[in-house]
Amino acid sequence: MRSPDPGRRETLGDMNRLRRWFPALVVACEIATILNGLVVGWVSVWFQLFGDTADRDDYLVSTGGYAAGAVAGLLGLLALRRLEVTSWVFWLCAVGAGCLVPLALSSLSSAGSADDRGAGIDTWVDGAGGVLALPWTWVVVVLGLLALVGRGPRRATSP
């Protein structure tokens, strides 16, 4: 009878450690995505240089940033539910992602009533691109879509 390979056992131990840290990594990506949506949405309207005020284009970029952060955050909640994170972490992320929805709607409403002084080249796609350009957003989106179809990683169980 052959004895198990000790090197293999150590590799499996490393994998189990990685599987235990994986939910924390996904939570960090979820929080970073929500905060990024908040920053893109807020900065595009409220950070104006040389005494300028926000115009229609700025509000559209803000709408895209808030909306992309909200959609990615809500998709990430599916992954967090599948990974069975603690309830307070899940609800913290749910509230964060949920707060971006009224902010996006408010920016969209403000875009309709703002001055149309801009060149008309900035749209909501620019704001969404600011959120979707970052790698941690794609971790959340891909894992959320996998969870939506019933696949993807699950919480590691104790051996």
UniProtKB/TrEMBL annotation:
Domain of life: Bacteria
Membrane-crossing segments per the record: 21-47, 59-80, 87-108, 128-149
Keywords: Membrane, Transmembrane, Transmembrane helix
UniProt name for this protein: Uncharacterized protein
Organism encoding this protein: Nocardioides bigeumensis
